[in-house]
Amino acid sequence: MARSTPSLADLLHDDPRYPYEAYVFVFEALGYAHHVLGLGEPAESEPLDAGEPERAPKEPQRHVTGQQLCEAVRRFALEQYGYMAKTVLATWGIHSTGDIGAIVFNLVKIEKMSKTPHDSPEDFENVYDFDEAFRRGFQIHPPD
Questions:
Q1: What is the pLDDT of residues 40-73, one digit of tens each?
Q2: Is residue 74 part of a domain?
Q3: What is the CA radius of gyration of the chain?
């Protein structure tokens, strides 16, 4: 009997470091990278892209690098949560860009994201410092 692909529930049980919300947020940040930031090159093979097969988009899949996804997470978090972005991410166990990579590769493991042969968890290590990216780098722009 063939072993089925683990579900997100299995993943949450097997690796309790990150709650469901962390996975949803990173998954949504990938969409933000593609659709808002316009990031991603056409994939050569096995793209780092999201989507369930039954809901896969008709457009070609695009590859987003680990560094690009980290930047998308930063910008999406600031857009969604403002000055509280770092705090919100921390409540989900996301304290560094390495955590983003761990979430991505967990999603790859359960086939909710995919990767190219060149992608690795190390692509996500030390992309930026969270204090710099979410505290000192935060700017409030008053209306004109």
A1: 776 654 444 444 444 444 455 678 999 999 999 9
A2: yes
A3: 16
User: Which residues share a beta bridge with 42?
Assistant: 62
Q: First vs last Cα of the chain: how many Å apart?
A: 65
Position 3 in a domain? no
CB-count burial class (<10 Å; 0-12, 13-18, 19+) for 53? exposed
Q: Which residues pair with 41 in a beta bridge?
A: 63
Counting as low any pLDDT under 70, the low residues of the chain are 1-3, 42-61, 136-139
Structure tokens given for 4? 């089925």
Would you tell me the crossing angle of helices 20-35 and 66-81 to the nearest 10 degrees? 100
Q: What is the mean pLDDT of the chain?
A: 85
| Residue 137 tokens, joined | 């780098």
85 assigned to some structural domain: yes
Output 5-14 pairs: Cβ under 8 A, ≥24 positions apart. Answer: 5/110, 5/111, 6/109, 6/110, 7/110, 8/110, 8/112, 10/110, 11/106, 11/107, 11/109, 11/110
The structural domain count of the chain equals 1
Q: What is the pTM of this model?
A: 0.80
